[in-house]
Amino acid sequence: MTTPIALTIAGSDSSGGAGIQADLKSFAALGVYGASVITALTAQNTRGVTGIHQVPADFVTAQIDAVFSDLAVDAVKIGMVAQLATIDVIAAGLERWQPKHVVLDPVMVATSGDRLLAADAVEALRTKLIPRASLITPNLPEAAALLDEPVAASEAQIEGQGRRLLAMGCPAVLIKGGHGQGAESTDYLVTGNGTVALAAPRIATQNTHGTGCSLSSAIAAGLAKGEDMETAVRNAKAWVSAAISAADRFSVGLGHGPIHHFHRFY
Prior knowledge:
Helices cover about 35% and strands about 20% of the residues.
């Protein structure tokens, strides 16, 4: 029996709710073995980010090569890349090892509003990582920032932005509607075959820390298990919605607390 393996390349969250920690919890909750490459250490809690310590690019390379030279990685999730030099070595690593599935979550700003990607790195994200991704998962503000456009306000505008993001070279884009308004939170999966709208009830909780990280890693977990893209996205969305619904079982921190990754178990 082969073990499905997913790798997260992302930043660490010292409070355990987002980043590498959320990714590894998501993989474990969904029955996938998780490995990690850490790009940055953050001093962070449920109220915000107080410091970022970059991991040197050559050490990011060392981690990538250590994992791929030994583990049969089925899918890669990329989160916080932080700086230009890190993007360069991740792109080189993907070129070297050619993983089958790459889910890129273009993390630019934290839930708390703290900037997590250097301004000069945005263009490298567009030209070096997006073309190597199987799927990118921007939220509404991130999609707008990648395109230098205002935030989309209608379904037609969201679909249009999805098409323009596809033109950057990735075969699928999931624009997340969590930052929108209304009773439902609708995500839009845009591919060359058209657009699929995925709606879920908007859940009234402030415990949403790590939602985006967890969704992208849950999709990577599905792809690692052999699911097709739409199935992986649908299953991940349903699982994250349940994890948000269960978040208020936790009492963690004074700000935006974490979602409940292990809601199926306790």
